[in-house]
Write a structure and sequence with these properties.
Blueprint: H1 2-6, H2 8-12, E1 21-28, E2 39-45, E3 55-56, E4 72-83, H3 88-93, E5 100-110
Antiparallel strand pairs: 1-2, 1-4, 2-3, 4-5
């Protein structure tokens, strides 16, 4: 996982990558299919971000295509500060405006490999994590 997070430096060049926050989480849909709230089974974060807490993710909904009982998927969340290079002079002229923006993305990804633990679907267990309980 650290190699994947380290790749952000190459991807973000020429912009600084030090402010990029990356969180990768392995999520599961309850085996009974009740509700559309996923469960965080394991999570990994870059050094300047916070991994998700294991358990119900009250701020998330299971995306379409993953709404099957016992389904497992990976969620990648990225937040990157972006200093505008063009138009910054105009932004300075506007009172109270800043030329600093934050781009955020959250992308669900199907599990392509992994292992079958307690579901009919394979799952990924992130470093220092455990398989989903149901």
């Amino acid at each position: 996982m650290s190699d994947i997070v380290a790749a952000a430096k190459l991807v973000l060049t020429p912009y600084p990558s030090s402010g990029a926050k990356i969180v990768i989480s392995a999520l599961g849909v309850p085996a009974d299919g009740a509700g559309q709230q996923p469960r965080v089974c394991s999570s990994y974060a870059s050094s300047n971000a916070t991994a998700r807490t294991v358990g119900a993710a009250s701020d998330l909904k299971v995306p379409e295509g993953f709404q099957l009982a016992g389904m497992r998927y990976v969620l990648a969340e990225v937040s990157v500060p972006y200093p505008a290079m063009f138009g910054s002079s105009v932004m300075r002229l506007v009172g109270g405006a800043s030329n600093q923006f934050t781009f955020q993305a959250s992308v669900p990804w199907p599990v392509r490999a992994g292992q079958n633990y307690k579901s009919t679907y394979n799952e990924i267990v992130l470093p220092n994590g455990k398989a989903c309980t149901s």
